[in-house]
Amino acid sequence: MSATTDAHPEQLSDEAAEAFRHEVRSFLEANAVPNADFAAAKTFQGKLADAGLAGIVYGKAFGGAGLSKSHDRIFREETSKFPAMNNDFIISHGMCLPVLNDFGTEEQKRAFMPDNIAGRTLWCQMFSEPGAGSDVASLQTKAERDGDEWIINGQKVWTTLAHVSDYAVLIARTNPEAVKHAGISMFILPMNAEGVEIRPIHQIDGGRHFNEVFFTDVRLPVENLLGELNNGWNQATAMLMYERVAIGTIGGGKISQPNYKMLKAAAESGDRLADAKVRQDLMRIYSMETTKSLMAMRTRAQMQSGKAPGPGGSLGKLFGSVIQWRMREMLMNMAGPASQAWSGAWDDESGLLAKHTVGSFSSSIAGGTDEIQRNIIGDRVLGLPRDVSVDRGVAFNELTVGTQRAKER
Predict the structure, then answer these.
(1) Is 243 considered catalytic here?
(2) pLDDT at 189 > cutoff 90
(3) Which of 18, 72, 183, 281 is most buried when burial is the number of CB atoms within 10 A of its CB?
């Protein structure tokens, strides 16, 4: 049985589409609230599942609604008009869930997808390491087979929401004698497994979203291998595509300009709208956010037509990062030191401006750095020559990466 869709037609009649739109809108009017915390988001997701509106395109056997991509489009259009309730589930639903669907066994899908979709469990993604950030394929966390178990040792870093997650999709090296891209496998990791240590990273904006995670002789059942042995790089690449689409198409159900609205309010508060340069910069942000919204809608439409996410997802992700640094530059020009130094609470005016400024830097890193996105766009979208690779055809255990030393010759 497929994990996506049951027996619903892809094209809805006008009457069916309007009835479903009314159903979604009525649910959101009753349940979507502004400034929801994580507990409220989990409660909301549970109610969504009870109403048959969670995991729209996933089959009912796996906890989804078993509806069509047309239903999904309508659902996204309507949710974009209400306060966002699922930001904490972007990784769990936008990245981990489709990977479980694409690569999981029938047993894994039945065991893990229903709780994921209903928000009863939260999932995180474990790729980056201290010596393997932009070059994730240089990862050193290893998984060694021991009878009916895998033993995991190593470290991950910048793992978003690891401290509140129940499970992780983890990639680890299973064959160090293969070239670095070929000896990686993907696993399902329970976060409460013995030997898992989570250390939150305290951010400059006061948040604690990111974490270091250490693995010391963590034992996983053999059946927790996700997908094919030593095919983890291809699966990780698919997951990264989903990630960039998820990040790059946030709010992709409609045209929106959140940064423009925030900056315009800040300009009005500081009596800066009379400045022609400020007005010009505001319109640039407005135009960029409008364009990004249209790109997001196009990307979502392509996925709903049956196309898997491709390198084009990097366009929206990169564009969002560019918008963030232009927004940061405007705030610093308009608010001066108050855009970075603040007093009082985060939710007062100066605190919010500072939070936008200092928090904007993560956008150029999360989901792949701007430099990596430009490489992907140049290589896979524009067809430009690839960078020179000095490790092509070399076994991983012969390389000097991170803390690993080259073998003595």
Answers:
(1) yes
(2) yes
(3) 183
